[in-house]
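re: ur question from the group chat, yeah i did fold both. here u go
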Amino acid sequence: MAEYSYTVLFEPAEEGGFVVTCPALPGLVTEGDTIEEARAMAEDAIRGYIESVRKDHLPVPSDKVPVKEEIHVLIPEPA
């Protein structure tokens, strides 16, 4: 059995809960009402994604760790 590890992003949804994406797996989006549910849904979605690419005899994507950085921008106030 192979084990895969991916970076996922949890973003608060406007209607509540969390939307989950995985930068390494294009098109993978899922959600959950709680962080725990969102995490479980992400695991299930990743499992399904990998099974799908393997079934199509495509390579399983490797994780791409996003770089997170804050950029501060100063903008002059209008006169």
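okk and heres the other one u asked abt
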Amino acid sequence: MDKPTIAGKAPLPVELKAGETYAWCSCGESSNQPLCDGSHKGTSFVPKVFKAEKDQTAYMCTCKLTKNPGMCDGTHKKL
């Protein structure tokens, strides 16, 4: 399996809006971190697509190694 590019070593806050659909970048190549811009095309990576359940600030993973795809779980602290 391919390894993702580490896009950052800290989560990025994203203002989520209830009912909106988002796509988290899993490859690390997106220029729109932490969200997908299609840079994964031609690789084995696919974005994690999800619908926000409520309005909130989400701290999204940029190291791409989280065990909770999309959301930061602190894994970046071990890099």
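fwiw on the second one: The two ends are 20 Å apart (CA to CA). The mean pLDDT is 97. idk if thats what u expected
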